[in-house]
Amino acid sequence: MKPTVKTFFDEDTFTASHVVSDPATKKAAVIDSVLDFDPASGTTTTKSADEIIAYIRDEGLTVDWILETHVHADHLTAAPYLKQQLGGKTAIGDKIDVVQAAFAKVFNAEAAFKRDGSQFDKLFADGETFKVGEIDAYVIHTPGHTPACSTIVIGDAGFVGDTLFMPDYGTARCDFPGGDARTLYRSIQKIFALPPETRLFMCHDYKAPDRDQFVWETTVAEEREKNIHVRDGITEDEFVEMREARDKTLAMPRLILPSVQVNMRAGDMPPKEDNGVSYLKLPLNQF
Questions:
Q1: If pLDDT is split at 50, 70 and 90, which confidence band does 286 have?
Q2: 4 SS3 class
């Protein structure tokens, strides 16, 4: 079955958020939403999320799911705001507890912060099925970028998070806590095992050097044939050598410190302090 996919691209964070809907029932899921954040002022706004809300209301859609492919390190999720405005259940892969445990140490999170994923309404096990309207959907755990990454397959469309980029840009980095290049290679083989005509939707696009526009949709067949890092014929050892060498040259994402603190809490801010203000931490010399 073929869902309708409407993509909203946030150029500030290079993030593609997707609204996936069943044309027959008008039921929908929102995948990898963005809460706008200005790190200089510490101000959050909802412009990106409001564009999604306007589309959903204009199309007469009902949101059943607000999904995260992983704990993002490059943007804050708008999941709580979307749930407040539209309803729906928040969900992520059930390995979120591994990420929460790792980053709770990095940020010295308060004792009350739960490391069991209970901030989300639903934790998906590997292979678990669900529906968007009448369209069958399921989750494939695809770790490597982080331990909790998942690919969400809805009908003929797969949403790969940061596991893969467009074929001319390659694959995700693996040098965050819990990341592993060999694990990523094996996860990508799970995606490559999907039917070749499966549509694949990226979470990010950074425009390859010879390309002048942002794009975020490809197919399994195109990735297998053309991906510059992991196309058919590239061995696991070759990929690991390339990926580990490349990762050593990369700077940390601009918003990693605020993003992870918020996203590991399913989009909620840290608890307010006695003056009524919520604060984000900047751990020194940890990365």
A1: confident
A2: strand
Per the CB < 8 A criterion, the answer to whether 156 and 136 are in contact is: no
Strand 199-201 versus strand 157-159 pairing type:
parallel
What does the DSSP assignment read for 81-132? HHHHHH--EEEEETTHHHHHHHHHHHTT--TT--SSSTTSSEEEPTT-EEEE
Q: Which two tokens stand for residue 260?
A: 């992870």
pLDDT in tens, 102-145: 999 999 999 999 999 999 999 999 999 999 999 999 999 999 99
Q: For residue 32, what pLDDT is reported?
A: 98
Q: Any residues with CB less than 8 A from the CB of 156 and at least 6 apart, and which?
A: 1, 2, 3, 195, 197, 198, 199
Question: Cα–Cα distances in Å, from 98 out to 4, 173, 177, 266?
Answer: 33, 18, 10, 14
272-281 contact pairs (CB < 8 A, 24+): 280/42, 281/107, 281/108, 281/257
Which pTM does this prediction carry?
0.96
Q: The tokens of 97 are what?
A: 């507890």
Q: Which helix (H) or strand (E) holds 57?
A: helix 47-58
E runs forming strands in 161-254 = 199-201, 217-219
* SS3 of residue 159 by DSSP: strand
> How big is the chain by its Cα radius of gyration, in Å?
18
What tokens appear for 218 in the block? 């490809």
Q: Please state which of the four CATH numbers 3.60.15.10, 3.90.850.10, 3.40.50.80, 3.40.50.1000 is assigned to the domain occupying 4-260.
A: 3.60.15.10
CA-CA distances (angstroms) from residue 178 to 92, 146, 173? 17, 6, 12
| Residues found in the chain | 287
